Amino acid sequence: MSRMGDVLAGFHAAWEFESDSVLIRYERGLRTPKLFQALGERRVPYRAIAGATLTPGRRGTVVLRLELRPGADPLLTAAAGQLKEGSDPYRLVLPAERETLAEYYRDEVRDRLTEDPSAAEDFLVGAPEVPLQFKAYDGKASFDGKIVHFRWFWTGASSAKWKAGDQSFPVSELSGVEWRSPELFEGHLRLLRRDAAQAQPAQADQDPAAVVFGLGYGPVHESLPFAAAVLEAVRRAGPVTAAPAGAPRRDPADIAERIRHLGELHQAGLVTDEEFAGKKAELLAEL
Description:
- The protein is an alpha+beta fold.
- 28% of the residues lie in helices and 26% in strands.
- The protein has helices spanning 34-39, 74-79, 99-112, 159-164, 220-237, 252-267, 273-285; strands at residues 6-9, 13-17, 21-26, 41-45, 49-56, 61-68, 91-95, 132-135, 139-143, 147-152, 167-170, 174-180, 188-193, 210-212.
- Helix 6 (252-267) runs antiparallel to helix 7 (273-285).
- It is globular.
- It starts with 5 loop residues before the first strand and ends with a helix.
- Mean pLDDT is 88; it is low at 240-249.
- It comes from Streptomyces nigra.
- InterPro entries: DUF4429, SHOCT.
- This is DUF4429 domain-containing protein.
- Residues 15-110, 141-230 form the DUF4429 domain.
């Protein structure tokens, strides 16, 4: 970079280009995505970046975006491609009149990239700071950096979870995290155990190692940073084992109940015709 500390300000964030990294500071305000506000800032080392692009945006804007190496950021690893475009933390929207300046910084970032753009062996971007907690539909999840706790709500937890009781999971016993966005049908956060011999139920609402999301429960800005922090702690704890392969077949009665619930969401207008048909086909395929 020509000068350390050069700053490029856009909508919802300002990027500061330093000698070894890009420091992204997110704005606070009603128009700023809640995920950005929850993150506060992200420091992205150049060795975590695979590329930088500049593309036309909407309504007289341009978009500068950092493309991170696979596996370099616990947040993106946990999200697994489920984030909507407007919630991409490495996307800076600028007025079109700043395109020339944006091109300059894009080229400067590209000139700094010396690492192989292949998958990173370790997380290079820091995880959100702990302690963290959020309310899911069936319980409260909390994480202090070493242990994940699930405390069940009597109004939402299944009988299987009540029978198992409140749960505590040291990160040393985990192999990973499965996060399904609350903006999708059957959103949940599931902890994957290192002990592959311990089969986990296919349904998150029956799994004591999972909490399920719902309308207003487990929002992206709370549950995704939580998942990223747990994932980073699991990685630090040592080599992980693969998650158990092949989920067991579901009970036909459970499938019927879920299709009925899906139909109710469809009738209420919360699920589109396409989403209804697709998810119904997925459920029937599990019989």
